[in-house]
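Sequence, structure tokens passed on for absentees:
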Amino acid sequence: MYKEAKSSYFDLPALDVSTAFPQATPASNFPTCTSDYYQLDDLLTVEEKAIRMKVRECMEKEVAPIMTKYWEKADFPFEVVPKLGALHISGGTIKGYGCPGLSITGSVVALAEVARVDASFSTFILVHSSLAMLTIGLCGSEMQKRKYLPSLAELISIACWGLTEPDYGSDASALRTTATKV
């Protein structure tokens, strides 16, 4: 006899739009999850589910209510950075140096929750964590890792990635710009 399995994905609470987006109609709710076609939620570990819920709660309660004012002004939400730093997800899969050492899946789940509320802010954390921190983690000297990664992991320092030049666009392999410490 076939018994229909029910994914734990369905048990997640609906997003209360009035909490996350105060400018929205209080009666508005995101619908509860109705599909986890591939049952991916069931593949997550307890730790990965905990990371997802921690990031989801912060993003819905702390970040979503204030992001509209930044969208309208085309301004960066610096006040959100410490909230994201407290989540301890910066640097994702990097182990040591104050970085969280998450599984690849845990890192993706955390970033997906950031993107769920604000896609532009997830781009910020992806550039910071993946392009800049991961480059240091993989290619940096031991001294560079000890010097930079701890403050980047806490979002005390913000990393960036210079990728575009007038003659080469975003072809990272053709960049000619160099930096000189002054």
Summary: Strands lie at 95-96, 99-100. The longest strand covers residues 95-96. Residues 25-31 have pLDDT under 50 and may be disordered.
